[in-house]
Each structure stands twice: as C-alpha cells, then as structure tokens.
Amino acid sequence: MRRRGLALALALSACWACAKPTARPVGSLLRSDVRFAPIVPDEADRAAADAAAAALVGDVAEVARASARIAAFDASRDEGPTGLEPAALDLLNASARPGRDYDQASLELLERPDLDPALRERIERARASDPLRIAEARVRDARVTALARLFNTVVEPIGQSLLVSALAPYRLAQAGLRYGLDLYQQDPLPLQRRQALAHWQDFLSRYPEDPQHAQVAERAAEARTKWRETRKRHTLEDARQALANERPREALVLAERALRFAPEAGDAGAEDVLARAGAVLTRQRAERATSVRFALPVGRMLAGPETRELALSLLTGDSPVDVAAGDEASMQSPELRFVRASALTRRDPEAGFAALRELARADPERDAMARHARALLSDPVRNPYDHFVAARWRDRRARVGWLLLGPFKSSELRASVAGVLEGVLALPALAQTTLALPLRLLQFPWMPPPGTAKVTAVQARRVLTQEPGTGRASEARDWLEDYERGRRNYVGALQVAEERADADPEELAELREQAARQALQVALKEERSDLRRALLMGVTRKFPHTEAGDEAGREARRELEQQTPHEIVLTRGFLLENPEVAGVRGLALDPDLLDDRGNNGELHPQGIALLGGRVIEVRALAPSGDEDDEPVLSHVIVSDEQLARIVARLEETSFRNALLDEEDPVVPDAGRDMLFERAKLGLADELDPRATAKADFAYKGMRERYGVVRRRKPILPFDIVVRGSLADLSLGAFPRLREPEPTPDAVLYR
User: Mean pLDDT of residues grouped by 10 in the chain (750 residues)?
Assistant: First the structure.
C-alpha cells in the first residue's frame, strides 16, 4: 500500500509538472535556421511562363499549346497534378473567348473537382459581375422589397393586437392608409430599378451584337422614361422647398429644369412654382431699384441736430446714457431710447432688456427702432436669458406632453384629408395610450432629458458667460449642473460646480473623482499613442489628487516605457486558423508553442507582434498558466529575408481568406501597408520616429471575432418579431419579411 501511494504521488506530481508552463529559450521560439533549396523549374513551370507571356501579347494559339503541355505533364506525374492546369485553362478561356463568351466557357471549368477554391471563387465572382445578371438581381430585389412591405403592412397590425383584438381592424386600416400614402409618394423608378437601368445601359454599350440587345434596349427605354419622371418630381420638390425658404432664384432655376424633363407634356405644378418665383423676383427687383434711385431732398436733413452728440458718443465709445442730447422731446426719441437700452444691457442686462421690450411694443411698420429692438430680443446670442427660459419651458412641455399623450405627442398628422382619416383611425389607440398614464407616471421621474435640452444647455452657458455674478446666472448654473449630472457628463458638471461660491467641498471632491474617471476612460479610448499619452498627462495635471489622476499618470509612464515604433499583432487564434503563416514558409514558429501543452511552453492568446525594424515579440503564457495574466515577453531579431517572407505570406493569406470568406475582408490600413512595403524592400531598419507613422493593427482569428458560433445568413426569409410597449399596453408577435440589403453602390443612385 505504501508503494502504491508513493507511485500515485509521483504520477500526480509528474502530471502537474507537465501541465505547468515552462520557460523557453529565446532562440528556440522562431526557427531562423530554416533554409530553402533553390527552385528548379520543371516542364510545367516553363509551360506556365510561356502561357503567361503569350497571353500578354495576345497569342491565343501559343496559350492553347502551353495549356496542353501542362495537361500532358500532369498526366505523366506519379506525385499527382501540379494544380496549374485549371489556371491555364482559365487563362485560355479569358484569351480566346472574351466578353460574355467567357461566362459560358467558365461553366465547364467550374465542374472540375481539382479546381482551387480561390480560383473557383474568383471565376464565380467574374460571372456574377455580368451587367445583365446584376440588373436582373436588382429587379428581383425591387420585387422582393415591394412584396415585403405589403406583407409587413398586413401582418404587423394583426400581430400587435394579441392583448386587445378589437383594435386589429383599426390598426389594419391605419397601416393600409399609410401604405397607400407611401405607395403614392413612391418614385416612378425606385432605387433598385435605377441600378438595373445603369447596368442595362452598360450592357448595351459593351455588347451591341448580343442576341438580347433588342430586348434589353426596350426595357432600358421604358426605365429611362420613368427615370425622367422621377427626376422631374425630385427637382420640383426642391424648387418648392427653395421657394418656401425664400430663395426665389434657386426656385426659378429648379422649376425651369423640371419643365425640361418633359417639355411636351408640361407640368402645372412646375409652372405654378415658376410663376410664383418670378413674381417674387420681380418684386425684389422693384424694391432694389427704388433703393438705388433714392436721393436726399435738397435742403432737408435726415436727422435733427441733437443726434450729433449721440453719433459722437457712439464713435468715441462713451456711454450714450450719460449724453445730454437736447431738449426733453429729443431725449425721448426712439433712436436715443434704443441706444440707451442697448448700452444698458451690458451693465444691467435685466433693466436693459426690459427697456428693449418696452420699445418693441411700438408699431414696427412705423417705428424702425421697434424693429431693431425686436431683432435684438429675438437674437439668442445677444439675449441668452430669455431664450434660455423659453427653451426650458419647451423642454417641460415636451416632458408633460409625453406624460399625457405618450408616443402621440411626437407624431404629426398630415394636413390633408388623408391625415384627418389617419387621426380618426388613431383614436382607439390614443384611448389605450391614455389608460397607460399610471405606467408613464412611474417612468416620469427617471425620464432622460429630451433631445431639445441641448439647445437649452447652450443658452445656459451663454447666460453664464455674458451675465456672471447675477441672479439669472445662478439660475442658469443650477439648471446646467443638474442637466450635466443627469446625462453623466461629470467633467461638464464639475466646470459648472466649481464656479459656485457656496459649493460643498465634499460634493466637489466626489464630483472631481467622477470627472477624473470619465476623462481617464476617454483618454484610454484614443487610438493614436501620442494623443493618448497627451490626454493621460492632461488628466494627471487637471486632477492631481484623485485616484483616476494617479492611475492616468501610471498608465502614461507605462506607455512611455513600453512604446514601440510599430505593433502589428498576430493573435494565437489567427495563427491556429492559418498554419501557413506560422509554418516554415512564414514565421517558422516552433510547433510546440501551438500544441496546447503546457510542459513545453505555450503561446499567449495575444500571439506575437511585429514591433518595427526586424524585431518580433513573442508573447508566451505566464508561469501560472492563466491566460488572464500578463504574458511573458521575448524578442527575436530576424533577418531581412525572413521578415520579407513573413510579410509576403501574411498578405497572401489575408487576400486568399478575403476571397474565400466575405466575413473576413481585407481591412485597409495605410500604416500597416507602408510597414509591409518597406519590409519587402529590405528597409525595415529605417524607422520613422513620428507618432503618426506608427502602424497599429491586429490580425484576429474568426473565432476571436465572432465567438464560438459565427454569424451566418439565416435560411428563412423572415424574422419573428416580439414587440411590446408599456406606453400603450400593446403586445404582439408576428413574422416580418426581410427586405434585401442595399448594395455598397446604392448611395450613388439615391
């Protein structure tokens, strides 16, 4: 028994020793002694070179002969085919059968079982780029979009009426009315059909001799007619908007352009806008002519002699309030009252704006100073307090409106017969929303500030800037501090609270700690290393006696100590998924680092990093074996040849993965590409010390990006939606057909 126990103890200790990570010598991390024998070209290599040279000069017969030589060589090999024959056949198809004939020739090649996956994907993408095939796909998207909107219009209101089934007819009628309005306002040529028109025109210009040319030309002509109608509608809408915004010249030009889209038919709406814009322009020209021809009558002065002292005081900067300008009647002139009130707003804003309000009560048609006073009062920069009060009341009305009417507060009924019908159909749902008032009362204390509160905050800051030390500034400061605290902007709240004379030191200390923590989080999110260090040092200087300030100082020091010229990271997941990068033709990484065994050393999940120059950092697991612990760093200097091989293999693998998997695209990065180009040219040791030249990039595995289960496109064409709202006591579940996602070039056709 004693021997058995001793043997068991030895076995357990041996297992524990095997599981514990051990240190590895630095020189054994990368196998830098890998040597490659010179490649001696065989008959297949020479035939491939001949085929490429013949394709460049357009010698189709020579390409065919070279392809036959490759096929004969593959048939005579005992080791199996070289894989060059499919590539040679594809080159022959592209040389001998250009245009749409290549599409048919590629079908036979796609049936070969020995076709390389990357070549197969490239051929399929080439076939998919046919303009006629793309146009048909866009037409199909347009049909699916129309069907999905109709289906969702019918199913959604029915599915949302599970709790209150009596509302289903009303919601269905409301949804149908909205669908009809949207259908009426839809463009004659929707977005997907515009894309189809562009590809039809491309097909007609590239393949004029194709048998389908006449059929495609007919469809394109019909689409162009609808496109002209669409452009006319958009141009007319822009003309009406310009006229409403008092831009008659722009409205006139747009209305004339709308008429040119269909000159034979005309358009009553465009002609109406044209006439109205012309009338406005005629009136403006008449007013301008009157102003130009104005002349001062002989022997008549525009103002009395009492205005001389007033003008001098304005030119010299003296206060017009202290100027004695003539008799009592002249002292009460509107001009002098306006100037005095304007000057008083700088010394006593409350009294000055009160005088301006008194002056603004006069008839603006007869009194020019009344118009000037109204302009000053309506200026949010010159009169911030009144606009602050108005904005605060607007925010309160918005909150109360949400409390009383819920979502109906923000909805605006259309000012048409259809809008009235929509409002009548919404009455049952409005009654249901009214019944949910107790639920909104519970949510009201925690309701976030409305979106319009940002304007109120701007006016409050203007009051603090222009009227410091006044009671109105104290009122604005109280509101602004509560607003910044409510949206958790502690830095802004601290700036406001520090200006308070009666601020509590303990509350200020707590707020300062919160602001420092917020500033630290913002600094750590900065991607550029130089800006990140500057922000960290700024946090340390601005909040010196806080925990977050001390942490920012330590983080800035750590970054200064560990900064490197570059940092291109290859994670362990990426190396496991791409063994050719970690293999002898890439990094030549020791396989023991990726065998998931702790007794011979194991790579940390952070993998390795290219630090600039010829330095590669290998990050191994800590002795504890915990992946959450900081890795053990080792640095290896490789040769120029090995670094160029690593970079080339990495780029080739990235492009191949992007070709085979649409979820693994090649992400553009200028710094990384510059570093790789210099490495391939043997210039890696010439470092650029500027922080803006640092390359920061990470190659991650697909499992690290998407988790254990990757995102896949759903098989079913619809989603199951479960929707509920406490505001109107609605609950429902219904299927929703998915509309086709817009293509990347869709923005060019809007």
Answer: 39 38 51 68 88 90 90 82 86 82 82 87 87 92 92 84 71 80 86 93 89 91 91 90 89 89 71 88 79 52 56 58 45 75 83 88 79 87 90 86 68 46 60 70 74 87 88 90 89 88 86 93 87 91 91 90 87 92 87 77 89 90 84 89 92 92 87 92 86 87 76 74 65 83 86
- Sequential DSSP letters for 476-501: HHHHHHHHHHHTT-HHHHHHHHTT-T
Pairing of strands 603-610, 567-570: antiparallel
CA-atom Rg of the chain in angstroms: 38
Cβ atoms of residues 570 and 577 within 8 Å: no
Burial class (CB in 10 A: 0-12, 13-18, 19+), 171: buried
Tell me how many helices (H) and strands (E) the chain has: 32, 7
3-state percent breakdown (helix, strand, coil) of the chain, nearest 5: 65, 5, 30
**Angle formed by the axes of helices 471-486 and 490-497, nearest 10°:** 160
Q: What is the DSSP letter of 604?
A: E
Using alpha carbons only, what angle is made at residue 412 by residues 167 and 394, rounded to the nearest 5 degrees? 120
Contact predicate 588/11, CB 8 Å = no
Q: What is the pTM of this model?
A: 0.67
CA distance 100 to 203: 10
**489, two tokens:** 């902007």
Angular region, 348: left φ>0, alpha ψ -120 to 50, beta rest: beta
The amino acid that residue 50 corresponds to is D
Of 681, 695, 606, 687, nearest to 648 by C-alpha is 681
Q: Where are the domains of the chain?
A: 43-128, 187-284, 324-367, 387-558, 566-687
